[in-house]
Amino acid sequence: MTIITGETRIFPILGDPIAQVRSPQFLTQILQRREENGIVPPMHVAPEHFIDVMQSLRKTQNVHGIVITIPHKIPALDACDLVSERAKFVGSVNIIRKQSNGQLYGDNVDGIGYLDGVKKEGFDVKGKRALLIGAGGAGSAVAFEILQREAEYLAIYDLDQDRLNSLIKRLNERFPNRAGVGDQDPTGFDFIANVTPVGMRAGDPYPVDVSKLNSKQFVADAITKPEVSPMVEHARSLGCNTMVGAGMFNAEAEILVDFMLRDHPINN
Length: 268
Hints:
Blueprint: E1 9-10, E2 13-15, H1 23-33, E3 38-39, E4 42-44, H2 50-59, E5 65-68, H3 73-79, E6 82-83, H4 85-90, E7 95-98, E8 104-107, H5 110-120, E9 129-133, H6 137-148, E10 153-157, H7 161-174, E11 179-181, E12 191-194, E13 218-221, H8 230-238, E14 241-243, H9 245-261
Parallel strand pairs: 1-3, 2-4, 2-5, 6-8, 9-10, 9-12, 10-11, 12-13, 13-14
Antiparallel strand pairs: 5-7, 7-8
Helix pairs in contact: 1-9, 5-6, 5-9
């Protein structure tokens, strides 16, 4: 049981809507397990009020960090005083630490959570060939982290060609000649990752051509409902090692708490 006192630190999560998120309970439990006197209360903030709320939280002295969820991740970038290289690349922020000097430092750890979840399942992308499905906000974060962790090559597939081409261009500027356009054929890849909602609804197609998967490949999915996506279920039937969406969620939750509890050296 969490006991709230006058010394309790506050780490609110901002979103619209907010009723569906699991983070308030889950992150508060992590704080409690670590014997930290803190809570993560949900705050339902409409987009038109986001900046005003952020200004108020900046002035509230027992707020030490802020978790950001949809639809505020992009405007949160400009609400920070400083942001990480990752956040700049992705163009959004999902976690903020209020530094001891009062500055708001933002990062986007979606990619770290995804790859840490994969690593906990025993797979390392270093030196491997990867196929990523999805070039949106989360996809961009995962793409950055795949190449940051020294994958040999990353192919990306997305229905939005403009978004896809823009991401690949930016990746190759940061990681020369290591990213390119992919398709739904997983042949020749060691790591297959879905970062789209495809598979959440009954009747959805598979994100990739599962008839071409083989048992030596690692298959990961970001969706949490159903708990085991159809793609992961099929991959497991072939003997593939896999990660389900909860793997990303659980890994990222620990990272979010770590980030909010300590100041970060700024190299900007």
